[in-house]
Amino acid sequence: xxxxxxxxxxxLSALVLAPLFYKPLYRDVARNWRGIGALYLLLLIAxxxxxxxxxxxxxxxxxxxxxxxAALQDVPPVSIRDGVLSSPVTQPxxxxxxxxxxxLVVIDTxxxxxxxxxxxxxxxxxxxxxxxxxxxxxxxxxxxxxKSFDMDRQRIQRWAGTLGNWMGPGLFVIFLIFGFxxxxxxALLYALLGMAFAAMFGARLxxxxxxxxxxxxxxxxxxxxxxxxxxxxxxxxxxxxxxxIAMVYLAIAVQANADDSSQRPGGFEVYTPPSPxxxxxxxx
Length: 284
Known about the structure:
5-stranded mixed sheet; alpha+beta; 3-stranded antiparallel sheet; 8 helices; elongated
């Protein structure tokens, strides 16, 4: 038995070389890597997820520090005791969007406004109910089961600060778990398409090898998506562009393994006629 060849490129090298159409990497991934490439995929998601989570973390922290105090300026204290809401402001009281001038929230425990049909606001707080718009519907939440609740500007600011402190780590865990599941399923499906490329180019690749190549092929897409997230660029139908990019990389990766002279080519073997027997001719 032959010992398995050692891989020439590690995961960090693959992160750099995968977007560069580097065929020796694609051959090494197919021939010498083991498993389905799950550890590489986990590393890729951890790096891109950490960058994206850090971006949202600092964006929210900046919002909570710079913009939220002004947005909360008109928010009055609200208390609920034994299911009854109260607020010390003169009512009906409106919290208005400063840019559009439209009411966002109406507080009225006097019974003057009893439904969102009476106001264009998004939400209405009455003595015992919360009314809010959900798309084209108006929904009502009963407050009678709430024993004790207090809200004011300072509390909201503290809640936002706490949320900001945990947003980065929380998003990172979410990206890591759900991103890994999503990308793994994607690689399994892309590997099926890779079988068509293998047949097209005559590359003798097993399904497990194609899964590894599929993961390598989505590396440029994930890196590009992360860059666009960080700089705030949004492109229509970007998912379709990403699919096309991944398929180009997958096709090149499969073809690189068909070009590898160390592999037996696919298709039928070429017939070579036997050489003629040398000797004295008969019949003389």
